[in-house]
TrEMBL record:
PANTHER family: DYNEIN REGULATORY COMPLEX SUBUNIT 3, PROTEIN PHOSPHATASE 1 REGULATORY SUBUNIT SDS22-RELATED. It is found in: Cytoplasm, Cytoskeleton, Flagellum axoneme. This is Dynein axonemal assembly factor 1 homolog. SMART domains: LRR_SD22 (SM00365). Cilium-specific protein required for cilia structures. Belongs to the DRC3 family. Keywords: Cell projection, Cilium, Coiled coil, Cytoplasm, Cytoskeleton, Flagellum, Leucine-rich repeat, Repeat. The keyword Lipid metabolism does not apply. It comes from the Eukaryota. Gene3D superfamilies: Ribonuclease Inhibitor.
Length: 114
């Protein structure tokens, strides 16, 4: 399990992200189209470059601090109302947040500086 780089678990009615800590080599994790309510238990996946949590029931962006290699974060079609807790994601190139409940874009700033 330590050597697995890609996992795709979609359309399985998964409620909670769990039991992934052994997969430290994971680079791509696709958990779209489930019923996940919270971003959690990902801190051991320090090599993750792509995370797809689209089409879930997530209300808050959280617990991503350790995923500093993350380049793609897909949170399309959730219940997120505030864009927050992504300051440590300095390698982020693609951030999909459409079709959520975001009222204000005031705290969003784009910078092309590296």
């Amino acid at each position: 399990m330590e050597e697995v780089e890609n996992i795709r678990l979609e359309f399985l009615n998964i409620l909670k992200i769990d039991h992934l800590w052994i997969m430290t080599s994971l680079v791509k994790l696709q958990l779209g189209n489930n019923i996940i309510e919270k971003i959690e238990n990902l801190e051991m996946l320090v090599n993750l470059r792509e995370l797809d949590l689209s089409f879930n029931n997530i209300e808050k962006i959280e617990n991503l601090e350790e995923l500093v290699k993350l380049e793609i974060l897909l949170l399309f079609e959730n219940r997120i109302s505030v864009i927050e807790n992504i300051n440590t994601l300095t390698e982020l190139m693609i951030f999909s947040i459409g079709n959520n409940r975001i009222d204000s874009w005031d705290n969003v700033r784009y910078s092309s500086d590296k």
